[in-house]
Design brief:
The chain is 44% helix and 22% strand. The chain is of the alpha+beta class. A four-stranded mixed sheet has the order 1-2-3-4. Helix 1 packs across helix 2 and helix 1 packs across helix 3. It is globular and about 35 Å long. The protein is built from three helices and four strands, in the order βββααβα.
């Protein structure tokens, strides 16, 4: 499903372990990542498209750390962006 704006956030999907996982990023979090303020949905969707790989990494990180008992939408808030940027990078796996 393509990303879409729902007045407060961009809704999108990632695939994790072969399963589609519904996700969202708030307007504020998206603006924090882009360091710009957008008013129009088209501008927000264009910004999301440019930042999609980074947004998906944040969503996957959040999904990995949440309890198995929690189901449903993985929502990225502004604080999640700050936490992700402050976290040390994950070690790279290398094939031997």
């Amino acid at each position: 499903m393509p990303p879409r704006w729902d007045r407060n956030r961009v809704l999108f999907e990632i695939v994790q372990n072969g399963q589609a996982v519904e996700c969202a990023i708030s307007r504020q979090a998206l603006q924090d990542l882009s360091a710009r303020r957008y008013a129009k949905p088209d501008e927000l969707l264009a910004s999301f498209a440019k930042l999609r790989k980074r947004v998906e990494r944040i969503a996957r990180s959040k999904l990995r750390t949440r309890s198995d008992a929690i189901e449903g939408l993985v929502t990225i808030w502004s604080g999640d962006v700050d936490d992700f940027d402050a976290a040390p990078p994950a070690p790279e796996s290398r094939a031997v």
